[in-house]
Amino acid sequence: MSAQGRLADALRAEHAAVYAYGTLGAHLDAATLPLGTQAEAAHRARRDALVVRLSVGGTAPPPAEPAYTLPSPVTDAPSALRLARTVEERTAVVWYAAVAETAAADRTLVLGALADCAVRVTRLRKALGVRPATVPFPGRG
Amino acid sequence: MVFTVGVLVSRRSVLRGVTLGAAAGVASGVLSGCDRFAALGGHRPEPAGPDPLAPFHAATVRLAQRYDAVIAAQAPLADRLKALRDDHRAHAEALGRLLILPSATPASTPAESATPPVPADQTAVFNDLLAAEKAGLKEATDAALTAPAWIAPLVASIAACRATHVEVLS
């Protein structure tokens, strides 16, 4: 797949992540809400950067889907955090898959996004009490 | 396990897009003799001497050794630090499997293999490790930026892991 194709996949992932945080954010409590709002803002920023990048490169940016099916119901703060963790892990996988085909400024974008997803996974693992909080190979899936 | 690459399944079409299942198939052990990291970006070219990433491997080994020294000197911290040490060991192993390394690596020379003394104060220990992780994160990010496609995903994943270490130690 081309760099443009990988970045389009990344944009689809970021659209889904923004949707997920919009849904799960309502279930976070005072302690975990900042985690959610920071993450949602980061995904929006990454999404916007990708839209610009793809448009400049001559690729029509894939739009967000009207709605997505969540892998499990979100009913409270723990289930919201679990969904956030799943979303971040899956988004990391998509960014990881874009590393090989990208170069220069595109690769810088990919590396930053992959590291950010990994850091959020670690924060969520801590919030969920999962030990260890780190994994050796973020994005490997 | 098959779900769309778009992280969540669209309600409009579950078949939209590439599936992660297919991507995982490419990246799993299906291809014999081919590391799953390398599978994403093709095969390693025929080796012509030690890999340019050999110094990165040596620095990764030293990072793990630094944790070894801290854990040996400060047993109460072992619980918190072993997982981070193990991450670095896993990185060194993965790099070692893929790279052609020089027979005498820089890490085996006394000057470079010597780990810095471990401070007695726990705050100083964590500050030292945080500084080492930040330097290691920059090294890995720089290396991932220019690494060839066959190994760049591994180096990128190592950089991402070091970013999580900075997060944990901060």
How would you concisely characterize the structure shown here?
Chain A has helices at 3-24, 33-56, 77-96, 104-128, and one strand at 68-69.
Number of domains as seen in the coordinates of chain A: 1
Structural class of chain A: mainly alpha
Number of distinct helices of chain B: 7
Sequence stretches where pLDDT stays below 50 over 5 or more residues of chain B? 13-36
Task: Name the shape of chain B in a single word.
Answer: globular
Relative strand content of chain B: under 5%
CATH homologous superfamily descriptor of chain A: Ferritin, core subunit, four-helix bundle
Structural class of chain B: mainly alpha
What would your notes on this structure say?
Chain A is mostly helical and 141 residues long. Chain A has a single domain (3-128), classed as Up-down Bundle (Ferritin), CATH 1.20.1260.10. Helix content of chain A is 65%, strand content 1%. Chain A has 4 helices and 1 strand, in the order ααβαα. Chain A has helices at residues 3-24, 33-56, 77-96, 104-128, and one strand at 68-69. In chain A, α1 runs antiparallel to α2 and α1 (3-24) packs antiparallel against α3 (77-96). Chain A is globular, with a radius of gyration of 15 Å. The model of chain A has no long low-confidence stretch (mean pLDDT 97). Chain B contains 7 helices and 1 strand. Chain B has helices spanning 20-27, 36-41, 54-73, 78-98, 110-113, 122-146, 152-169; one strand spanning 9-10. Chain B is mainly alpha-helical and 170 residues long. At the A-B interface, α1, β1, α3 and α4 of A face β1, α1, α2, α4 and α6 of B. β1 (68-69) of chain A pairs antiparallel with β1 (9-10) of chain B, so a sheet runs across the interface.
